[in-house]
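Model: You mentioned two targets. I'll fold them one after the other.
Researcher: Yes, keep them separate.
Model: Target one:
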Amino acid sequence: MATERNPYDMMPEEVGDVVAMPMEEESNATFEVDPEDGGVIVDFSEQVVGMEASEDIAEWFGDMSELLEEDELNDIANDVIESYQSDKDSRAEWESMFESGFDLLGLKLEQGTEPFEGACTAVHPLLIESAVKFQSKASGELFPSSGPVKAQILGKSNAEKELQANRVQNFMNYQVTEQMPEYFDEFERMLFHLPIIGSAFKKLYYDATTKRPRSEFIPIDQFYVSYYATDLRNADRYTHLIYRSPIDMERDIRAGIYDDVELPEPNTEGLFTDFTRKLDTIIGLSPSSDNDPQYALLEQHCYLDLEDTGESLPYIVTVIEQSRQVLSIRRNYEQNDQNKEKRSHFVHYRFVPGFGFYGLGLIHFLGNLTMSATAAMRSLIDAGQFANLPGGFKAKGLRMVGDNDPISPGEFKEVEATGMDLSKAIIPLPYKEPSSTLFQMLNFVSAAGQRFADSTEQVVSDAASYGPVGTTMALLEASSKFFSAIHKRIHKSQKDEFRILAKIDYDYLPEEYPYDVPFEDRSIFKSDFDGRVDIIPVSDPNIPSNAHRMMMANMALQMAQQSPPGMFNLEALNRTILQAAN
């Protein structure tokens, strides 16, 4: 017969009535005794670790404007504004060209009045179609769903470096996809402006208000470079025009980004350039001066001699354009840098390198072709309209019942023409049908522009008629030379962008920074960004599209089928084909 045991019989006597509770080895819980009733308050909330500058970095890159005399600050502000105006004037004609070119995008709906009421106003989509196709293709290649960052080990690989590279890659992909939600939107905006204008700028910096890195796309009309600059590294100065609302200014001043000066009244009068006003006209926007006043800040990266060293060193000076007040002056070089090299905060993306600092875009390459295609298309449509609804002359004495309303299809109108031959009283003008020669010319111009922009899709769609895979690969490679070169340039600029982000992480991360991803808790260490791991984009600069991957994988599969068994890993090869097909 079974007997019931007392569970406390096996407990040692010295323990008494104490029951041992299993505890976590490490816990972030805090305990506080309530003095009123003797109860214990347990707080299980975890301590949040943020990205903040250390005391050394905060002091070195702190605002120096408070250390200067007012007269010296006024001289610096005047120099900043005058150099900004000279840089702005040096490219005035360059901007006016784009103001005309934006009309070729065909984004504005309007009624035609010239050369007659109701004339065709359609714009040939050659330019905008090429830009949107480029944006779509580049976005898919440069920003996959898993993240755009890949880590590459410098030097000889070992287990420690591989773990470090894995941590850096996972954390930076987490940053640009989760911690910096604006990154993808700003990147896509940049990819739309880049093919049209030829140059686009991204800015990465540590935002003291949100305690994290921030990425911004800088429109071309808000970034000005000195005339003699060939790239950002050797430019004597460049200026970022920043628009800030009064609320944003108060937030920045509280965070210590700008000096607490007496601000002028914000406004919108004279703030925006002709370039911006042209874009607003196309998309139907206009600023509201009553409800949305703005401050115009000039953040100029330049060289100044402020520390009596006898040489000009890199600084960042921010000035209010309306009142010519200096908001901040900060060093722009590392504390331990013997060469005092300028730190980079901007990245210049070029579509095609031009004759100077700025790149060339589709407006330069396809602008005239788009104008010709638009003129031909409008002539064909207007000719068809006249052929379907012809006009002409009628005799003065001829009277038509119902006045001169147009005749609808299948309608017959009565005419008072006693003793008059209608064939002589009504003479239509000899309008011709749309010209077949003009139609062929329109097709030629459109095809020429599309071939220049991208003909890869046509090669892929016609691949079955080309014969062997090698022939198709040769045609595919030849057709994609233009985009492939652009893809490499963007890859290089994106690499520079990720390196700036890695430098921000090294400066502002704590020794250990925990972060959460789905189903896992991870940590990144400040020492992981010590330079032993290089940051590169995940995209392959030598393979600009999935079509290339598919063709290369199919070629490898054909070789595997024709080779002796065992020479190819068919499982890995088929996995590669599936990955190329997403």
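Model: Target two:
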Amino acid sequence: MSLLRTHALRIASSTLAIAVWTIGGTAHAQTTPEQASSAQAPDAQTNADSDIVVTGSRIARRGIETASPLQVVTSQDLDARGYQTVAQALNELPSFGVPGSSPVGFSQSSFGAGQSFVNFLGLGSQRTLTLVNGRRFVSGNTASIFGPTGSGGNQVDLNTIPTKLIERVETVAAIGAPIYGSDAIAGTINIILKKNYEGFDLDAQNGFSSRGDAPDNRIRLLAGHNFAGGRGNITIAGEYDQSKGLLFNDRAVTSSDNRFARARSGTGPQTIYTDNRIPSISPFGIPLVGGAAYGLDLTLTPQQSNLFLGDPSLNFGVNNAAGVQMRFDPNGNLIPIQYGSTIGPDSGFSVFTSGGNGFSLRDVENLLTDVKRYSANTQVSFDVTPNIHLFGEGWYSVSQGRNLTSQPVYNSGLFDAAGTRDGNLIVSINNPFLTSAARAAIVQQIAANPLSDRNQGLVANQDYFYLGRANVDLSSGVSTGKSEIMRFVGGVDGNIKVLPAGDWHFEAYFNYGRSRVSSRNPELNQRNFLNAINATTVNGQIVCAPGFTNSPIATLSSTCAPINPFGAQISQAAKDYVTTIATPRNVNNQYDGVVSIAGPLFKLPGGNFSFALGYEHRAENSNFDPGAFYYGSGTGSSAQRGSYGRSVPIDPVYGSYHTNEIFGELNADLISPTNNVPFV
């Protein structure tokens, strides 16, 4: 998907220019002399010939000398490609694997849609540490196995870090773990911010895909001012970004859902290119008259019937005169199920067929989420003396993601037995929403089908049938997540002259961060759903059968409205009665204080024998509240679905820990280029 992005406006140091066009990932930029001489003050950290603190070490050294290769993404790289987030830039590097969480893909978490966690070396996002100016940043991960990653970790949501303030991004593999801890086992990402900026920079960007969709819009501001004769500086940055998502059906390559599979035929398995469908599931409902004795109350293809029942003409459903099993159409009329070609393993059961009119997962899969981000950041610095420097940071960032769709709540024999939360619904043959033709066909099959519950001897008088359904019209999977970050840093650093070998650098700072991730998820309330399914007629009006009890968990409406489950004919009143808005919330707090000193002790032939020594106290806590709906699944609500489709309660999680660390590091420059040692 190539992108066409336009930086429509850029104002830098009072100079107006059209800055960048990017087509298909290739950047063409024209820079004015005024832009080239940006008002940013010189920063020693950007000079490769100066001593700097390199990511993965606390000892200052030449910027070109590191114990492990550094990958660097500069602010120019971010601007030239029009990246909206740091995560987009890093995920294009070959050293990064499939993201732990991102706005791309159908597997969006209900507890933080659209968050961006990167995965260095593919070893897991929980093993990738993210720093800002060499300091820890509060995690945006939810402390639940149902969170964005399905695992723990202190992953930083890179959506919340504004690109305008970034000077460069350094990534280093592996060696960060001895310095920063076990969450840096894969590697470390260090986001270096611009310092001592003076001037004014405003830009805007509009982008869209080559198909003219998935638009994104962005406006960014960076402004800085020196005061007190240049001893102090204040820099502010603001950013607003909004992008629209896509569904699987918006692209041919994903809407086809085609893949290679093994087809069954009379001559044996053959490899075919399939259009995956599930004939045993329908968003409009599939009536069944039996199967409880076998635990297979679902539609079966002729091959599956032969596999399980020994007769390809047998099924548990409602057949037409030609012996073809039927399902409901959107208007509640029965139509034949078109099975397509049977596919699957060489032997055994497969729910998929190629072609036909079965349920397609591509209709309920998300390709790209909506994301909206905004942030405001302030950096302040002041030189108390030429060698003592005060600094502070203030952050407020918000990232909001919206999942456009997801798989619904299913009622099917694929997931559980009939009458259970996820199994087929048990519906009265006298349900008033049934058409007379459909009722007659079901009654006829109860009498004629050898696999009906009556003919299996399970009941003497079968006045009910089973209904399988994918409830896409009741649980769309649309969810929104909001990640809110507040962070404050304050400290002092400077240089002291102790030994002739050179200055020692000291630093002391305190860092507090708080992230709050909240979601708003419409969910199907199981108890009210069953109340609404149990419809009857009173004085000529279709109503909920008397004697029901509403769910203790509130829904959009407390007035029971009957559901017509046959087709796509459910009223808004009924949808409101069975819909609960789940509001899970997670709060992370991080407290981090560090005191350190580093510098040279004495001279060596190749340079200095240098050290770093310090103390760090860090305390973190996390509090996950699933809310009444997810936690109360045992009271009749439909909570998060497990790997087998069963609904399970989600427990709250609270935990905290603290560490007290003393760290030390030595670096001995035995040989350097100045020694002119051959072959070294």
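Researcher: Noted. Anything on target two?
Model: DSSP finds ten helices and 36 strands in the chain.
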